[in-house]
Amino acid sequence: MALDQMNSNAKKTTTTMQGRWASVAASLLLACAVQRQLRVDAFVPAARVGANSHGLTVAPPFGVHPMWSFPLYETAKDAEGAADDDVASSGEESTSAEEEEIAVEDKGEEKEEFRSAATEWASQQKGELAAQKKKNYVVVGGGWGGWGAAKALCEAGIDADVTLIDALPDPTGATPYLSKTGKPVEAGTRGFWKDYPNINAMCAELGIAEDDVFTPYTNSSFYSPDGLEATAPVFSEATLPFLDMPFPQLPSPFGQVLATFPLFERIPLSDRASMAGLLLATIDCLGGDESVQEEYDRMTAHELFVRFGLSKRLVEDFVKPTLLVGLFKPPEELSALVVMELLYYYALAHQDSFDVRWIKNGTVADSLILPLSEKLQRVNGLKVKGGCRVGEISIDESHEDGSNAKRATKVTYQDASGETVTMSDVDGVILALGCKGMESVVRSSPGLASFPEFSSAASLRGIDVISCRIWLDRIVPTRTPANVFSRFEALRGAGGTFFMLDQLQGEDNDHLWGGASPSEEEAEQRGSVVACDFYNAGSLLPLSDEDIVRTLTNELLPSAVTEFADAKVVDSWVGKYPGVVSWFSPGSYDKRPPPRGRRFLPSQREVRRGLGEDGRAGARRQGVVPGARVRKRI
Known about the structure:
It is a single chain. By secondary structure, this protein is α+β, with helices and mostly antiparallel strands. It folds into four domains: 32-130, no CATH class; 135-175 and 361-461 and 584-633, FAD/NAD(P)-binding domain (3-Layer(bba) Sandwich), CATH 3.50.50.60; 218-354, no CATH class; 462-582, 2-Layer Sandwich (Guanine Nucleotide Dissociation Inhibitor, domain 2), CATH 3.30.519. Strand 1 (50-51) and strand 2 form a beta hairpin. The two termini are 47 Å apart.
């Protein structure tokens, strides 16, 4: 029955796509026929950027060649303005016409001057276009979504000032984030999975050699109170057991199952085989329409696992720890839809989708954000305001052009000195915020709250996170540099990870200790540097920093790797971040902004996702994808 349904859906999809292509072909033929009936110079290419009735601009979408683009103007006035640009840029034709007219006058001949419709429009609009004011756009938020939007605006080819505002003192990455003792720290350790095409493209664009920024792809280990449970392989580098041959690319998930066969230390084969139920769930969930996905969204991931027959042992020892560090909540508190998306994109899409690498030197901020911000500021004139908290975004319904459309016209924020600053004459605002930032801005902005999309997004709840960094007096060897805690009572329901930074960034560890070259005595005291993160950490937040460090060094770390018991803490840092990570709870689908809205463009982290929307649970995969959508809308 399931296969019949799949075949039926496939036929419907094929018929629908054929219908769409037929419509596209008909549109092209119709446009060509119309163009033949008009003067060529009156047909304005859509590749030209012209003003529309919203005071913004229209550009062709990525991947569409200008020769296949057609006008996208909402009024005749818009087309007139674009025609002026078209004619004004045709320098050779204008020069030829002027020379011809002069020649006729010199001969004393009388000849009626020919002016096309486009030339008439250009003449009428010349003064208006010359006096057109420069646009002013504001991006709120300095994460991946914010930088992606700023990048797209700066590179869109429009005459505009772009300002990025963020609460961090320096969101550009130029100023390192240091502990009280001057050592570099970071809020969370971030992985970069194999299928992060936008990050890879950004590195190429900025001239960054990936081998200089990222580590090789690494294994990850899962530890429980019973010891090592499993090791996640590097699928792209796996070899056949007992043979020195590369592991072949096999259909998912068969390749993953076979490649990991020898790497599960304790989970029985029968429990691992129950994972096959998730493949059926994935086909049913992500292959269905929006109504099917809404049904899965109302279901918890725990209910999903029970319905599709996953064993309790597999869920408790492997799936649950993975979700706690991937979506930051246990299965009973997560939307089944979002869990299916996570598992598909990070584990089931391709055999090597789970391969992950890390920052090789320094932090994400100074390795990736800094070169991007420098380029946008130097080349594109981007303005960055750090240490600023946005308050009200004002919505105005009365405009000089007589329209009554609701538009964001002012942004009020508190700067680093505590003074209130208002940016007026704003032409557009992009909110690239997480749930906590969105709640703060909407609560202070009655105009935004009047939109159901914003008020719903502001009601989404967040997850508590704790980041720690521990400097030890000796090197502690571990099986893998990236590791996950599973089922430890000391976690109090949280998910936990620990990363051996001295292994990931082993070429020069001086920067992990603050950069200064050590004396002989100090060098003897410089051992491993461990970054630990806790997610869903509400029960750990009330603990003091000292108690959190003791929980790690006295209970969790020695239980996973016994050699930690012999190491002493030289220095430590703890950062607490309540409610900062988005919680994709059951029923949250309707609260998340749609990926394409008439009035706004949401941050990628919060949007409703799906196969057709290039969705990912991790914003780093998008990189500049939100910016691509911004470019389309302007």
